[in-house]
Amino acid sequence: MAVIQLTCISCPLGCPLTVETDGAGQVVSVTGNTCKRGEVYGRKEVTAPTRTVTSTVRVEGGSVPVISVRTKTDIPKEKIFPCMEEIRKAVAQAPVHIGDVVVENVCGTGVDVIATKDAL
């Protein structure tokens, strides 16, 4: 049985989690959490970790040279660097509004990259 120590990032408490797995990598137990979100985070982090990616994208013809962007939902952790490469190559055409899709289906994840700032 493997034991993995994590710090929960689901809320500001930062609970110290202990996640126990069986020999096949299946979660047996999560302890140390003070809320249900901690247990969900511990299980997900050990079996299929995901992250929200934030960055910037260049803008052509706008009031600002770059806009902030983020993935609409989490993406698999192993896709972060390939996604950042796609985002780095992206160029948005003004006008851009908060929530507009800047990169569609980034790296085949099914997740869009959306604007978090306006560029008029």
From TrEMBL:
Q: Which InterPro entries match?
A: CPE0013-like_sf, DUF1667
Q: Which Pfam families match?
A: DUF1667
Name-wise, this protein is: DUF1667 domain-containing protein
